[in-house]
């Protein structure tokens, strides 16, 4: 069995950079920032890191600590409209670009992130 995507792209350090860069953008975003109730984005950063690590073949810590991801259910309390989705994707695009992954790895990661973002939309209200 070959290496997981997680291992191929550099493991935890790569995902830490991705998530940290993403939350740097979220911190100043007037639409997304209010969706994070904690004063410090650190807990959200850790949750996303653990989720992405597990999804891509790293440790299963996310499920051990939080159970099944249930992404749509966990986001149901937030108004995730196309504007929020597009802002999320813009910050994530900046984060992915900062990684400077090989083209196939970048495309694989970005494809998943786009699909996930579109799946989280739960309203078309402004």
Automatic annotation (TrEMBL):
Pfam families xref list: Bac_globin
UniProt keyword list: Heme, Iron, Metal-binding, Transport
A GO molecular-function annotation: oxygen carrier activity
Lineage: superkingdom: Bacteria
Listed cofactors: heme
Family annotation (PROSITE patterns): GLOBIN_FAM_2
Family as reported in the entry's similarity comment: Belongs to the truncated hemoglobin family. Group II subfamily.
Protein name in the entry: Globin
Species per Swiss-Prot/TrEMBL record: Agromyces aureus
